[in-house]
UniProtKB/TrEMBL annotation:
Superkingdom as given in the UniProt entry: Bacteria
Cofactor(s) this protein requires: pyridoxal 5'-phosphate
Protein name: Serine hydroxymethyltransferase
Positions of (6S)-5,6,7,8-tetrahydrofolate binding: 147, 151-153
Protein's organism: Streptomyces formicae
EC number annotated for this UniProt entry: 2.1.2.1
Keywords: Amino-acid biosynthesis, Cytoplasm, One-carbon metabolism, Pyridoxal phosphate, Transferase
Alphabetical list of Pfam families matching this protein: SHMT
Residue numbers carrying N6-(pyridoxal phosphate)lysine: 256
Length: 433
């Protein structure tokens, strides 16, 4: 039985053969009208909907939103201009979108126990940009996880504003254990006296020790910014520790395990509220996306239910089972397992590197990312169980998926087609919508 409210209220599945828009019934959007007016684009949307339901989505940052979230996203709130904040907009006619944003903010602060929430960032990266804009000046030194160890682009990549405008000092993980090395972080903090320390990663499968980060930040007089883009949904469900009591500012996405619309948010104490709000608008963004903010409110409402808490328990239980099963198929699991939705692994023992593995797995309908490994230049694979768990999959399916991984990587010639067919059959037993 699917655990998500999405799955329990969803209409029948959308399959590759049936392009009838059952999704339209669950959404404010009129897919039949789209198909009549623009068959070319409708075909693309329906094709992507079919792709999501007949392959397995193991990208750790992805999930399936509920039809209620999709309905809010496809609603006429998309038409409304709303620069500013509730009660203080630069446009008239904002009474109802003000109500939507107030609901989103109230639900976010209650869900995460934060004094202040800004729900306007268009993405997780925009949330991080706003946090830096609120606390730092160009040229300031920032200590963050190095990109080669799982730091995000916004943690100092030269290709990103962060690396261009700030002076980043990278910390890593222990090459042997893959775990954060707090002695190294403390030493680098003492040597470099950063203005801010960022904790958070795109691929760390364990819980950061937020108290240890706080202690180090206090010792050198730095702000602590938690980039909880990945674990935020687990925090909401109570299966991961919260950075809110420790960090000055918490940045997050709303579309990963949290299962809301694509977007970001920032949480902080009351004393930083005004600085954060100004850093989001007008400093780094223009008009707020009110349909997305309404969808965030819906997702926060869903995430405060017991059903969602059970979902997050299952996400972690599934990830642990999948990690163990992959280890039994000879994958080298970084840190030896996981405490979260996320697994990183080196497929080298199966004779392939991360890039080759991603290609072969994708050909079999197993969709995931490559990632940095704690040692050397080689790449590993990164996967997560948030989407599979929303579909209602459990431990038996995780064990099956590990066998399919190994079959896909060992397949020769035409054998990959048989694996692809098995993946399709499995996926179709658990329709996301
Ligand atoms: C996903 C992620 C982001 C950015 O999210 P976008 O919405 O893609 O901009 C930022 N930081 C971390 C650690 C992430 O994992």
């Amino acid at each position: 039985m699917p655990v998500s409210s999405a799955a329990t209220t969803a209409p029948s599945a959308i399959s590759a053969t049936s392009t009838s828009t059952s999704i339209a019934a669950a959404s404010a959007a009129d897919f039949d009208a789209l198909r009549r007016q623009d068959p070319e684009l409708a075909e693309v949307i329906l094709g992507e909907t079919a792709r999501q339901s007949d392959s397995l989505q193991l990208i750790a940052a992805e999930n399936f939103t509920s039809p209620a979230v999709l309905a809010a996203l496809g609603s006429p709130l998309a038409n409304k201009y709303a620069e500013g904040y509730p009660g203080a907009r630069h446009h008239s006619g904002c009474e109802l979108v003000d109500a939507a944003e107030r609901i989103a903010v109230d639900r976010a602060t209650a869900l995460f126990g934060a004094e202040h929430a800004n729900v306007q960032p268009h993405s997780g990266s925009s949330a991080v940009l706003a946090a830096y804009a609120a606390l730092l000046r160009p040229g300031d030194t920032v200590l963050a996880m190095g990109l080669a160890f799982g730091g995000h682009l916004t943690h100092g990549s030269p290709a990103n504003f962060s690396g261009r405008w700030f002076s980043f000092v990278p910390y890593g993980v222990d090459a042997e254990t893959g775990l954060l090395d707090y002695d190294q972080i403390r030493r680098l903090a003492r040597e470099n006296r950063p203005k801010a320390i960022v904790c958070g990663s795109t691929s760390y499968p364990r819980h950061p020790d937020y108290a240890a980060f706080r202690e180090i930040a206090d010792e050198v007089g730095a702000y602590l910014i938690a980039d909880a883009a990945h674990p935020m949904g687990l925090i909401a469900g109570g299966v991961a520790p919260s950075p809110v009591p420790y960090a000055d500012v918490v940045c997050a996405t709303t579309h990963k395990v949290l299962r809301g619309p694509r977007g970001g948010m920032v949480l902080c104490g009351s004393h930083l509220a005004e600085r954060i709000d100004r850093a989001v608008f007008p400093f780094t963004q223009g008009g707020a996306q009110m349909h997305t903010i309404a969808a965030k409110a819906v997702a926060f409402g869903e995430a405060s239910t017991p059903a969602y808490a059970s979902y997050t328990h299952l996400v972690v239980a599934n990830a642990r089972v999948l990690a163990d099963a992959l280890a039994a198929e000879d994958f080298a699991i970084t840190t030896g397992g996981t405490d979260t939705h996320l697994i990183t692994a080196d497929p080298a023992p199966l004779g392939v590197d991360g890039r080759t593995a991603r290609g072969r797995l994708s050909a079999a309908g197993l969709v995931l990312d490559t990632c940095a490994l704690p040692y050397g230049d080689g790449r590993g694979i990164r996967l997560g169980t948030a989407a599979l768990t929303t579909q209602g999959m459990g431990q038996a399916e995780m064990a099956r998926i590990a066998v399919l991984f190994s079959a896909a990587l060992r397949a020769e010639g035409d054998e990959i087609r048989r694996v692809r067919e098995e993946v399709r059959e499995l996926a179709r037993r658990f329709p996301p919508y």
